[in-house]
Design brief:
Chain lengths: 154, 786, 156
């Protein structure tokens, strides 16, 4: 089943800093909720493992993450495809765009399109949108913490 | 009538074990050294399987095997067959590409099995399945039935995803009838896809005995002999004498357990490979994905009438979704089990049906309670009701005007109805439902702000699925007779071996009632043996409401033989002429004398064999019959449903439900009523609650009881049941069968009632509160009120 | 593996089980009491209903470890020796079962309904209370009738 979602975050860093973080495997690894492994295969490709829980279905997704349509320091598309074993599969991507905010920060907007199949769709379908939204929120919370660790301390 | 003979409300013999937890279902088995199978299934509706890497799983301790379609191919196992040949209009045979037991190169629905993991525990098998990686190359899914002909190919061999384009009836004559019509009613109907949902999930336990070189399979089957035949003759697993199939207590079937599925096939085959017994039980999500689904038709239906409401012709064009593969009996369902019943209870001279069977990347569709006949009844009875409304004729009157009144009656669509009295049925139903008082009740509902509606459905079905020559001429790959063996023990107790299988129908009770009635022996001296290919020589199983009319008829014939032999023996023991021996109430007597021998003494005499010459009579008392009837049986009935709809919410309450059925001779009214209750509930489920929904990618969105709406106790009223009797002339008992009638007759009654209430015909099944509310928004009734 | 002990049908039992073992697995696989059935995996069908300290629970969503020290009654423990419980008798008398698969859960739920609502529980209440138990065979008509009859005889 397919789903779409979009959102916007204001981040307390300039556009170049945000862009670099978005391309930093360690930052991405630390930001992806449930990330167990995130290895750089090339500048634009990563091998990832993440544990995700959708309603009653818990799955460990193994797959590839690819960066494409790269337009530094403005936008890229981050897409991935993961096999969750008997739980099914998830795939999709997000187009992430950056713009300068008035206060010197950066406005990040994203548009996600994703598709899930197998048991996740069968049992967890009514929860997929909620789970995806929560995952995105967690990702950007983690990402924001990385950009302004002092906020976290406060 | 004896206390527990034919016609008595005998409480069931089988109940004792079920109400005390003493049933023996397949999943209850625990064989020494048992391992567990877990099937890895496709999460994609349509994909090429580029590779399967099982090395990680195989490295795990306690994992015995990971097997795939390649392993099956290497052993030349499969494919799963379709047992009913259909020819297209142009004479070409249907296109049924192979249905591999495990995917070979391609998957065609979400849930299609790709590999099996066999391990010491179920938990380990599941963990090992996580370690198997399958490389899928996704292909475009084919989900929407109406556009499937122009979509990607599900099977390369089936152009336009079409298995066959079939027709029945006289096209030109039917066109002429429409040309001369005063009124034509046209409806676009869909018959929603259902999931059978027997509460016991499918299961299998398989064991290979190397010493005997013999397999045993315990499985949730409605027809263990057919399962053995298919596995032996078509799947090449083992010859029949090396394979024993046992169907122990089975927790409901409704058609879904007729078929031979990949899972039990794999378990039998793999039990020899791993040298250990293997158990597999579906979890409910697997049942949703892999039990053969049901119905799923889209139909344009037309009826032509003259100015008095006499039906001149009926025409349908139906698309039938068969899913990803043509299942075992799938081809017969939308053809000979559907279009042959389009005459309903009515004298219609011109009928023409066209049916296209279409492959899609969804779960295979096959027979489910009613199988084709609910679809036919829905077409005919929606057309009747809407025609009556359009022509301003009372719906009961329009039906009566068109009833067939003399029998036998040859319809233009193969069937020759042999008996019935449709006026008697509807009159009784009208009385029980208090049709005359409906107007008053409607006004009372209106005072409460509720919309009240009443709906009819007059069904007829062809069941007792049998006559072998007839079904053979229509394409069936097997004969559909039934066998019975009557074993009289030396002490006079009787064991009946039957090829029918009971999984809720109460055969252990009703079959015994027949024996008690015929032999006059105590009820507790009779036992029914079924469901084991080592005990019962052969049989075709239970489906199509056939166990009574066909299975019991076979018992009746075998009992005749036993009584005949008993008379021969009695003649010797009583020193009388055989022609003078009479048998009644368990005693053989010499007519006109007081000489008699009772049943027990005669049975012992047959085995002691001291009292008759061996040149003339063989010792023992055991007889067999293979019974093949000369016609289908034709149960008929009338359902009247009354509903109240809340116009603000669309919520429908079923206020009353009347069903009057003519099942011919009834063996046990209590059990027959129970069959009708259950059938109505499944029909109400179809009409109001249930539907298998796929999203555009082919993911099953209604894949659990959280999303697939099963009828629950508070969705249903208590039912009012009546019966009328015309005896079936084609079998020795006069019975017609009752298992499917409720599910066949009920859906149109409910839809006719709701559409009557809301004043709109634009209502598809399932009529959920939301769709009823939507239909109300555009109904004339609503617009008139505003 | 932890040891889980409880009283099942009046007998003290104990088994070393995986911590994730469900009560239904404990009674079916470890105690071999197979009258309690599993009909679904989302806690909807009610085929697995047993009594835990006198109240109906779905044993498919109860961990065995939660039942440490508890009193559990399964369908096998409902009759008093050869004397059927009135609710079992009512199901037989009223044809409240067909295939028998949902029956153990139905009967255990039915006894609990009567315990909570009394011997004169009405049809509508019975239908609403059966929300958690699915039957595909009977259309519920005779189950409701059985529970009404069983409720009455439980009081006499």
């Amino acid at each position: 089943m397919a789903m779409k979602m979009s959102g916007e975050y204001t981040l307390p860093a300039d556009r170049q800093t945000v862009w670099e973080a978005l391309n930093d495997a360690d930052v991405l690894s630390a930001s992806i909720p449930g990330c167990e492994a995130f290895e750089k295969v090339s500048d634009t490709e990563f091998a990832a493992t993440a544990v995700s829980r959708i309603g009653p279905v818990k799955a460990r997704f193994k797959g590839n993450v690819t960066l494409s349509d790269i337009d530094p320091p403005n936008s890229y598309r981050i897409s991935g495809e993961g096999q969750g074993g008997v739980a099914g599969f998830a795939k999709g991507g997000a187009t992430v765009s950056l713009a300068d905010a008035e206060d010197g920060g950066t406005i990040l907007t994203y548009e996600v399109d994703a598709q899930v199949g197998g048991k996740i769709a069968q049992i967890g379908q009514r929860l997929v949108n909620g789970a995806a939204k929560k995952t995105a929120d967690q990702f950007f919370q983690n990402f924001r913490k990385h950009l302004s660790p002092e906020e976290d301390a406060a | 009538m004896s206390d527990n003979g034919i016609g008595a409300r005998v409480t069931r013999v089988e109940d004792k074990r079920f109400i005390t937890g003493g049933g023996h279902y397949t999943d209850d088995l625990n064989r020494a050294g048992q391992t567990y199978a877990y099937f890895l299934r496709s999460p994609h509706a349509h994909a090429n399987v580029k590779g399967i890497d099982a090395s990680g799983a195989l490295a795990m301790a306690g994992v015995h095997a990971v097997l795939t379609g390649d392993d099956l191919a290497a052993d030349e196992i499969g494919p799963l067959p379709c047992g009913w040949m259909i020819h297209s209009k142009d004479g070409s045979p249907m296109v049924t590409p192979g249905h591999p037991v495990l995917a070979q190169g391609k998957v065609r629905y979400v849930g299609d099995p790709v590999a099996v993991v066999i391990a010491d525990t179920l938990g380990l098998a599941k963990e090992a399945a996580e370690a198997v990686s399958v490389d899928y190359e996704e292909l475009a899914p084919v989900i929407d039935l109406e556009s499937a002909k122009t979509a990607a190919l599900v099977h390369d061999e089936a152009a336009a995803n079409t298995a066959f384009e079939w027709e029945l009836g006289d096209k030109a004559a039917t066109q002429a009838a429409f040309d001369s019509a005063h009124h034509v009613t046209t409806l676009e109907l869909s018959n929603n896809r259902l999931v059978p949902n027997a509460i016991e999930p499918r299961a299998a336990v398989a064991e290979y005995d190397a010493g005997l070189d013999r397999y045993t399979l315990w499985t949730t089957s409605q027809n263990p002999h057919v399962a053995r035949l298919v596995m032996s003759a078509f799947l090449n697993i083992a010859p029949e004498h090396k394979l024993r199939v046992i169907a122990p207590d089975v927790g409901g079937g409704f058609g879904s357990k007729i078929y031979v599925y990949p899972e039990e096939t794999v378990c039998v085959w793999a039990s020899r490979k791993v040298k250990r017994p293997i158990r597999w039980t579906a979890d409910r999500t697997e049942s949703f994905l892999t039990d053969a689904h049901a119905r799923d038709h889209v139909t344009t239906a037309e009826m032509a009438l003259d100015e008095k409401g006499k039906i001149l012709g009926l025409r349908v064009k139906t698309l039938a979704n068969v899913g990803g593969y043509m299942n075992l009996f799938a081809s017969s369902v939308p053809t000979y089990l559907y279009a042959t019943l389009l005459s309903g209870q009515y004298n219609i001279q011109n009928i023409y049906a066209e049916v296209d069977a279409i492959y899609t990347t969804t779960t295979p569709v096959d027979a489910y309670r009613g199988a084709g006949r609910p679809e036919a009844t829905f077409v005919v009875e929606r057309l009747m009701e809407v025609s009556a409304r359009e022509m301003g004729i009372d719906p009961a009157t329009l039906r009566k005007r068109n009833f067939i009144k003399s029998f036998p009656h040859q319809t233009p669509v193969i069937m020759a109805y042999d008996a019935g009295d449709f006026d008697a049925v509807i009159n009784k139903a009208l009385e029980i439902a208090d049709y005359k008082g409906f107007g008053k009740r409607k006004r009372e509902s209106a005072k409460k702000g509720k919309l009240r509606g009443i709906g009819f459905s007059n069904y007829i079905e062809a069941c007792g699925i049998a006559p072998s020559q007839a079904v053979g001429s229509l394409g069936a790959g097997v004969g559909l007779w039934e066998s019975a063996e009557v074993r009289v023990n030396p002490v006079g107790t009787v064991e009946i071996l039957t090829g029918a299988h009971t999984h809720g129908q109460g055969h252990e009770t009703t079959f015994a009632q027949l024996v008690v009635d015929r032999l006059g022996i105590p009820f507790e001296n009779v036992s029914i043996v079924h469901g084991d290919t080592d005990k019962v020589q052969f049989g075709m199983g239970t489906y199509g409401s056939r166990s009574g009319p066909v299975g019991m008829s076979a018992i009746s014939k075998a009992l005749d033989k036993v009584i005949d032999k008993g008379k021969k023996i009695a003649a010797h023991l009583l020193e009388a002429a055989e022609a003078d021996i009479e048998f009644a109430d368990g005693n053989f007597t010499v007519s006109g004398t007081d000489k008699a021998i009772d049943w027990t003494s005669l049975a012992l005499g047959a085995y002691v064999a001291h009292g008759f010459p061996p040149q003339e009579i063989e010792p023992g008392l055991k007889e067999t019959s293979f019974y093949d009837p000369t016609n289908f049986t034709f149960p008929s009935g009338c359902h009247i449903c009354e509903v109240e709809v809340d116009p603000d919410t669309g919520v429908t309450d079923i206020i009353s439900w009347t069903a009057v059925d003519d099942f011919g001779v009834v063996i046990n009214p209590m059990i027959v009523e129970g069959q009708v209750h259950g059938g109505i509930a499944q029909g109400v489920g179809q009409a109001m609650l249930e539907c298998a929904h796929y999203d555009e990618d082919g993911q099953l969105l209604t894949g659990s009881y959280m999303d697939y709406t099963m009828p629950r106790a508070d969705n249903l009223p208590s039912f009012k049941i009546g019966t009328t009797v015309t005896e079936c002339p084609s079998n020795p008992i006069g019975m017609k069968g009752c298992g499917e009638a409720g599910a066949i007759g009920s859906p149109p009654a409910l839809i006719n009632a709701i559409t009557d209430a809301i004043g709109s015909e634009d209502l598809a099944m399932p009529a959920t509160s939301e769709s009823v509310w939507q239909a109300l928004q555009t109904s004339a009734l609503k617009q008139a009120a505003e | 593996m932890p040891t889980v002990s409880m009283t099942v049908n009046g007998q003290a039992v104990s088994a070393d089980v995986d911590a994730r073992t469900l009560l239904v697995e404990y009674v079916r696989e470890h105690l071999r009491l197979t009258g309690t059935h599993v009909g679904c995996d989302t806690s909807q069908c009610g085929a697995c209903v047993v009594h835990l300290n006198g109240r109906a629970v779905k044993s498919c969503t109860t961990l065995a470890a939660q039942c440490e020290g508890a009193e559990v009654t399964t369908i096998e423990g409902l009759a008093n020796g050869d004397d059927l419980h009135p609710m079992q008798e009512a199901f037989r008398e009223n044809h409240g079962l067909q295939c028998g698969f949902c029956t153990p859960g139905m009967i255990m739920a039915a006894v609990d309904i009567v315990n909570r609502h009394g011997n004169d529980v009405d049809e509508q209440t019975i239908r609403e209370e059966l929300e958690g138990n699915l039957c595909r065979c009977t259309g519920y008509h005779n189950i409701v009738k059985s529970i009404s009859a069983g409720a009455e005889s439980m009081g006499s």
